Amino acid sequence: PADVRDFVSSHPGFQILPESTRVLCTLTGHELPYHLPSLQTYANGKKYKNLVSGIKTEDSFDYKKFEPHIIPNDKPKRRHELFCTLTLRHLNKLPSAVYRHVNGRRYKKALERWEECQRTGEKFVPFCKQNKKRSESLDDSSAEKKFSKTQETDSESEEDSDDSMSDLYP
Q1: Which residue ranges are recorded for the region named Disordered (predicted)?
Q2: What is the secondary structure of 76-121 as a DSSP string?
Q3: pTM surpassing 0.90?
């Protein structure tokens, strides 16, 4: 078991439990057998690698370089996340998530549009809000048309009907 001890000491997320028959992953809480191949398999897994990379870089990662657009979230239940003001998306506070978002198509398009708005002096409206404004303006005009049509049909029906509603009630 010296090889297991060496493996555990070289990996930051593992610790040997006092009964010395199990190894605990402190990152996930998993208990693993005191067996080198199973520890190596677990350490090569996707979940463990993501957690270890998050630990190494999250402390030293500077989120301030993305700050005009990616800011700490101010919603009470989402304080552990970041918020992108260009795309109106919530991001996990992990360097990999921030890089994935910043290198994505949606962010790049929004950043290009924001820079264009800064040059022209126009107010920046995120893409998801633009569609909403268009549909609201279309809905308003169509609602006015529907309202005017119903008024016309109501006035015509009142003129045509000689029938009163008094015969419905005894």
Answers
A1: 132-170
A2: GGGTTEEEETTTTEEEESSHHHHHHHHTSHHHHHHHHHHHHHHHHT
A3: no
127: left (phi over 0), alpha (psi -120 to 50) or beta: alpha
The pLDDT value given to residue 105: 92
Q: Looking at the structure, do residues 112 and 74 belong to the same domain, yes or no?
A: yes
Cβ(91)–Cβ(98) below 8 Å? yes
Look at residue 149 and tell me if it is in a domain.
Answer: no
Report the C-alpha gap between 128 and 152 in whole angstroms: 37
Same domain, residue pair 36 and 85: no
In-domain check, residue 168: no
Q: Is 37 helix (H, G, I), strand (E, B) or coil?
A: helix
pLDDT of residue 163: 64
Q: What is d(CA 62, CA 58) in angstroms, rounded to the nearest whole number? A: 8
pLDDT along the chain (170 residues), means of 10: 83 80 83 88 85 63 82 87 91 84 91 92 81 63 58 54 67
Over residues 35-47, the pLDDT tens digits come to 889 888 988 888 8
Residue whose tokens read 């067996």: 35
Q: Which of 25, 98, 90, 88 is nearest to 58 (CA)?
A: 98
Cα 87–chain centre separation: 10
What's the chain's Rg over C-alpha atoms?
A: 31
